[in-house]
Design goal:
The chain is of the alpha+beta class. The chain is about 20% helix and about 25% strand. The protein has helices at about 20-25, 90-105, 130-140, and strands spanning about 5-10, 30-35, 45-50, 55, 70-75, 80-85, 110-115. Strands 4-5-6-7 form a four-stranded mixed β-sheet, covered by helices on one side. It starts with 5 loop residues before the first strand and ends in a 26-residue tail after the last helix.
């Protein structure tokens, strides 16, 4: 059995009434943080972590909708993790919200890991938003570690044009 240090979850669909489920899903000696979407069903974020890890929920600027984020800082190593979920569809206006948030958080954190579900098909260089996102990461000196589809349907939900990274 492998022991994890931290697990980041997007699209949890959890509500306040589901906290018992989340608590029961955590292995012993692990804790959790969560943030559910209040405005409509779906979405939501959760972070499960070893209880002995010195981390704190970081104070970030208010996240503009529809972007959902949770940011934690590991006190022992000064690493900041920002978990993001950006629900589809990704219009140019929605993309600009994401780009502004990433630029803002990257300017104030030297050791930053941004992860989550951006619903951007970065391996399709013909998509304008994919090009823009890749260029944003390059401009901010952020390294993209995922280079292949992470969705079981190969980046596409059957019957739609929603993309994942």
């Amino acid at each position: 059995m492998h022991k994890f240090d931290i697990v980041f979850l997007t699209e949890t669909w959890l509500k306040d009434s589901d906290l018992a489920f989340l608590a029961n899903s955590c292995p012993s000696s692990y804790s959790y943080l969560y943030k559910h979407r209040r405005s409509r069903r779906g979405g939501g974020l959760a972070i499960l972590y070893r209880s002995d890890m010195p981390l704190s929920l970081a104070d970030t600027a208010i996240t503009p909708p529809p972007l959902e984020t949770m940011t934690i800082q590991l006190k022992s190593s000064n690493i900041t993790f920002c978990l993001c979920y950006l629900p589809p569809p990704i219009t140019p206006t929605v993309y600009n919200t994401l780009a502004e948030f990433i630029a803002s958080i990257s300017s104030s954190n030297t050791h930053l890991c941004i992860l989550g579900d951006f619903n951007i098909h970065i391996n399709d260089s013909l998509q304008p938003i994919s090009k823009d996102f890749t260029q944003l990461l390059t401009d901010l000196s952020i390294i993209q570690h995922i280079s292949s589809p992470t969705h079981t349907a190969g980046n596409k939900y059957p019957g739609s044009h929603n993309y994942h990274t």
